[in-house]
Amino acid sequence: MEAVLAHLRAAIERGDYAIGDKLPSEAELCRTLEISRPVLREALRALQTMGLTVSKTGKGTFVVASAVEDPTFGDYAASDLLEVRRHVEIPVAGYAALRRTPENLDHLAHLLDRMERETDTTAWVAMDTLFHLAVAEAAQNPVFRRVIEEIRDALARQSAFLNELGGRREQSNREHRAIVEALLDGSEHDAVEAMSHHLDRVETTLTDIVRPPGKGTDTPTEGDPQA
What we know:
mainly alpha
């Protein structure tokens, strides 16, 4: 899927498909690129998330931008989502370290163990959002949980995007483990640092995915997974 996405993205950024153009049909793309329809549809969804295309039911997929600027996850732009997460989840982690109950810790530890064993990305993404909700619950302030609930769908979409295109799952598990260990220790400082690091890595991976291809990577081949 990454190779197909790189191929289509580069074609759009080169101008092979200009703004307003309709991409070839799924059947034509599958035939031309010699790929299955599920793989193509994953790549098309990623293009839309990146903000390069829009899908119109019954009409096809149309190019709406020539370069990736700010992906959208559900109702929210990535930059807006990350800004809010920094202002909410970092202090929330500190409060959670000071206020967590034994039940909160047991729930987080059990959830983290399941995430570290999970191999299915869809199931892992669902638990990823539950993890961040559980940290908010440990802060013992229902408003924090309500805020995370509001952005829960966007968090799931962002998590899926980062895992599909950035291979974030194992790294994220390690970052989550550091957060839980800080909560176990009751260290506000360490919890804040661990959550800050986690969000820094999220931002770095997003930047790596959406930045314009470097010199020499503007003409990827179908077999090149890193365009």
